[in-house]
Amino acid sequence: MLSSKVVSCTHIAFTEGTIISAQPTTPKPAQQQDQDTTVWLTSEEREAWLFISSIIFNLTRQLEVQLQKDSGLSFVEYMVLAMLSESPTHSLTMTELATATNTLPARLSRVVTRLEKDDLVRREPSPSDRRVSICFLLKAGLQKVQQAAPGHVREVRRQIFDHLAPEQVHSLQEIGTSVLGDTPSQVISIDSLMRGDYGVTKQERADRKSERES
After folding, report:
1. How far is CA 103 from the centre of its chain?
2. Of 114, 135, 116, which is closest to residue 124 (Cα–Cα)?
3. pLDDT exceeds cutoff 80 at 174
4. Domain ranges across the chain
5. What are the pLDDT digits (tens) for 141-166?
6. DSSP symbol at 42
7. By the 8 A CB rule, do 68 and 100 touch?
8. pTM for the complete prediction?
9. pLDDT digits (tens, 9 = 90+) for 21-54
10. Which residues in 79-140 belong to E strands, given as ranges?
11. How far, CA to CA in Å, does 202 sit from each of 22, 80, 188, 212?
């Protein structure tokens, strides 16, 4: 189960008077004005944000521990293999892969290099644009992610869904839709990546369409 201890963070604002980060005892006028107009979190909102923070800081680490122990993969390595496996061609450009795994290009390059050494992926220039690198999932890489997936899913279930009733899972899905502006599977998917709007909400897509038509 996720630890209730939230990693210390010095920039998370909560209810007024309970900010983790230290504030100057005599704020400058501009700072004072900002504080006066801040809509502080209610106690319920603070509890919800603390939970989200614990997920951000703790869940990835715990999933990584399981993946390393059972499959010898880091979380990012698993995500690279998983995203490639979901592509119809088992390939993505390095730019697409960086977007899909939320990984900086320099770090992604190092991750892919490690996977290449294990003959799990292959990287080569695009035949249509030599400036673009394409990462291909190899047979051993597909087998690796297929072997790792069951343990990963069990850990996700153990950490999150085993503690939720069905109606809570439904509420969580609805929360995701409210925050993202569309169902998570529409916003975060290989299809949206191919369309060039991975992670872009329904409202943002509508705004873009309106701009193009105006």
Report:
1. 9
2. 135
3. yes
4. 166-214
5. 999 999 999 999 999 999 999 999 99
6. P
7. no
8. 0.78
9. 334 445 555 555 555 688 999 999 999 999 999 9
10. 91-93, 121-125, 133-137
11. 38, 26, 11, 15
